[in-house]
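== Polypeptide entry ==
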Amino acid sequence: VDKEADQKLADSRFAELALKRYNKNKNNKVKYALIEAIADAVMFEASGLYRHVNFYAKAKNGPKKNDGKVLVFAELHQIGYRPNAMALTCFRLLDENNQLYQDKGHCYACSDRIKHPDGSCYKAGHFASICYYHNN
C-alpha cells in the first residue's frame, strides 16, 4: 500500500467535495475549479468529524476568471454516515496577507502543512490538549 498515493487521493477527494459544496450554493456567484489538492487533516470533535483542506483553485467565471490560481482553505463537517455526507462550514481564499501556516492560536489539530485563515471563521481544531488530535 502506497501511503503517499492514498494521502494524495484523500486530499483530492476532499478538495473536490469542498468545491462541489461551494459551487452548489447559489449565493456564491463566482464558481471555482480544482487545480491541485495540497493537503488535508482529519479531526474528531464533540460535534463530530471535521476535515481541514488546502488546495489551489481557479475562478471559472466572473471578474477573476483570467486570474491565476488561488490558495483555498476549506473546512468540512461530517453530517451523516455516508462518505460524502459532509457540510462545508468554511471556505476562504487565502493570499499572503491572510494565511497562517499553523494557526497555533486557533487550530491545534493541523500540522504546518495546512495553511489557515483567521481562526474565527472555522469551527474545529480549537481544543488545546496534548494528544487530542491525530495528524496525517
Observations:
- The CA atoms of residues 71 and 125 lie 20 Å apart.
